[in-house]
Amino acid sequence: MTQLSRRRFLQIAGASAGAVAAAATGAGLSAAGARATSARAKGLRTVPTYCDICFWKCNAIATVENGVLWKIEGNPEDPLSRGRLCPRGTGGVGAHQDPDRLRTPLMRTKLRGEDQWTAVTWDEALGYIADKMQKIKAKYGPEAVAGFSHGIGGTFLKHTLKAYGAVNLAAPSFAQCRGPRDVGFELTFGEGVGSPERTDIANARCLVLIGSHLGENMHNTQVQEFAEAVGNGASIIVVDPRFSIAASKAKYYLPARPGTDLALLLAWMNVIVTEGLYDRDYVAQHGFGFDAFVAELAQWTPERAFPETGIEPEVIRATAREMALHRPATLVHPGRHASWYGDDAQRSRAIALLNALLGSWGRKGGFYQPASMEVPGYPYPPYPKSAKGKVDNPAKKYPFASEALTTGIRDATISGKPYPIKGWFVYATNLLQALPDQAATLAAIQNLDLLVVVDVVGSETAGWADVVLPESTYLERYDDLNVELFREPFVALRQPVVDSPHDQKPNWWIARELAIKLGLKDYYPWKTIEDYLDHRLRGAGLSLEQLQRQGLVRGAKQPLYYEDGVVPQFATPSQKIEFYSVQLKDAGFDPVPRYTRPDPGPPGSFRLLFGRSPVHSFSRTQTNPVLAQAMGENELWLNAAVAERMGLAGRRVWLRNQDGVRSDFSIKVRATEAIRPDCVYMVHGFGHTSKLLPTARGRGANDAQLVTRYVTDPLMGGTGMNVNFVTLEQEG
Q1: Mean of the pLDDT values across residues 438-455?
Q2: Under 8 Å between Cβ of 586 and 578
Q3: How do strand 68-74 and strand 59-65 relate by DSSP bridges?
Q4: Spatial distance between the Cα atoms of 184 and 349, rounded to a whole number of angstroms
Q5: Which of 177, 314, 426, 533 is the most exposed place for a label (fewest CB within 10 A)?
Q6: CB of 615 within 8 A of CB of 91?
Q7: pTM for the full predicted model
């Protein structure tokens, strides 16, 4: 993996943007893009919009010279980016110039998975889809068509599906990512932490990161605030089996054994309670069930946690006291990707409880109260009602699931129970990379009568589709308004910066045209997206012209903390912070989190861990020429002593998991002392096999291929995926 300084990356992203445009001419893209934008005004112009490389949706300003996209910078008026984009956002110019972009609608000509396609017109593609949907509806009902989406771009497609009568709509971001965290905090405080998270990192005097890789996840606002907190002398405590970028800034680094975080959290709370270090007034005023909670903690001394976690008792005590020293400006970060071991909602609840002991919820340096602007929705007709209900969580098997479960829809597609699912729409997500157990996903796909993929680039999932629809990039389209719930409320506009280079279409156009072919024109009374956006904005006393010019409008600042006048409200059964959860007990679960020892795995194997890179988003950006130049493939982190013993330092290896599945491609070993000897780590999203991705195909290894096992969280249905183990086989 190529390591680049930020200055060097900005040189690539800025000065080389024009070079990227010229270099892509060989792929027939930049020349076509220049021709497509020739009708636009000549000369230099700037266009405000907001980013789509990740979910943070930072506001940006794009510079276009003679119709050619030149660079993208942060909008200085944006409370999120504060005028500074992350490497991914700066590298967004490459999304427009991507040589692997889908150019025209494609229809499958042979068996699914053979990547054999014929180019068709939009009318042919949408006509085929509408005909298939009507046949499914007639035979099975509209509920038999399900949708999977990622990001705000899926808004209009979901609107069309709901108008058709579909009810099974889900996003991998819940069960495969943030869901356990959201549920853990909802069970404790009555609400989640939001997205972007309501973390007051900039004002924290002590920041605790448990497997949360700020600086690698690159969530813009948080990374900037993290740098400020470090610069202000905040005490940083990092728990991670890998010495991450965040760990390099820490006062205390705790390389806990993977899967034992809950034991550490319980021991920390034991110390804070038994030594009387918690916020007594805060707990007395806002807490419920504290005495029962304390009784459950009694057994979890640091001495008991030591053999589980590998962290010395005195280190546990010292770090607990450090947190208490700075309360309430101590923030135990809730994380983002929280689906690890199957006990994840309870682990996240323990994080919430630790914050409650420290009095940080609703307090400066902890969790602020976010706000949003009032922007009315569009007055659509009501959606049809379903008598069947949803398939993802039958009989509420997972009683605290607050959103739909992707794997639940997949299971129903395989089994046909509680009723058949025969059509899938997949928008901007690669399910074969996002969901665990690829074999199960493929088994579900084979049961479908229709699989439609809408995306900017092809993917492994697109390779199994009946129809693939090429979407315009975020730089070439309007999307729905971003009415952000944040520290400072604002509403932002995404608008076209340049034209699409080929026969790509924006998602709103695709959704509207499909609705018309389905006889659902009444659900799209507006003729253009500008009409829709202006109608919503005028309802808020704004206008489209204003947003087109400014990019965003900021609302009035609101109080952020209890001490500033925010009234504490907890939407729990007790209307308090629930240290002891009666609703969990009544549902048959532990009212206070309990630790279960994780499976150590087969002898001689390594636990497989995976994460993010600051220059890539999931498996979506490996063909972006700017970002690929910064990181073209992933590497396997292996403990240096182990690598020396095995003779693998710098060599390429295949990975074989506990079920005998071997990686399709080899990966280079990165021997490092910055990881425990019982696990390996790789960046997610590489090792593509799709023929639709020739630039990224075969570069690095694919962790998702090796995640054949997962443990389902009994509270909310999340899929714990850090339960797979691998052995290493040297290439050659």
Answers
A1: 98
A2: no
A3: antiparallel
A4: 4
A5: 314
A6: yes
A7: 0.94
What is the pairing mode between strands 679-683 and 59-65?
A: unpaired
Residue type, 431: L
Q: H or E segment at 453?
A: strand 450-455
Q: What is the pLDDT of residues 467-497, one digit of tens each?
A: 999 999 999 999 999 999 999 999 999 999 9
Residue 17 has pLDDT above 60, yes or no: no
Taken as a whole, the chain contains a residue count of 732
Using alpha carbons, select from 434, 550, 392 the residue that is nearest to residue 61: 550
Phi, psi angles (nearest 5°) of residue 335: 80, 180
The region of weakest confidence among 38-47, 120-129, 373-382, 631-640 is 38-47
Q: Residue 357 burial by CB count (10 A; 0-12/13-18/19+): exposed, middle or buried?
A: buried
Helix/strand/coil for 424: strand
Q: What string of DSSP letters covers 378-401?
A: --PPPPPP-SS--SSSGGGSSTT-
Residue with tokens 């905090």, as numbered in its chain: 185
What number is the average pLDDT over the span 425-446?
A: 98
Neighbours of 192 (CB within 10 A): 20
- Answer whether the bond into residue 79 is a cis peptide, omega within 30°: no
List of domains in the chain: 6-97 (2.20.25.90), 106-170+374-455+490-554 (3.40.50.740), 176-370+561-586 (3.40.228.10), 606-730 (2.40.40.20)
CA distance 374 to 491: 9
pLDDT at site 41: 60
Residue 513's φ and ψ, nearest 5 degrees, are -65, -40
600: amino acid identity, one letter = P
pLDDT at residue number 111? 87
- The single-letter code of the amino acid at 628 is A
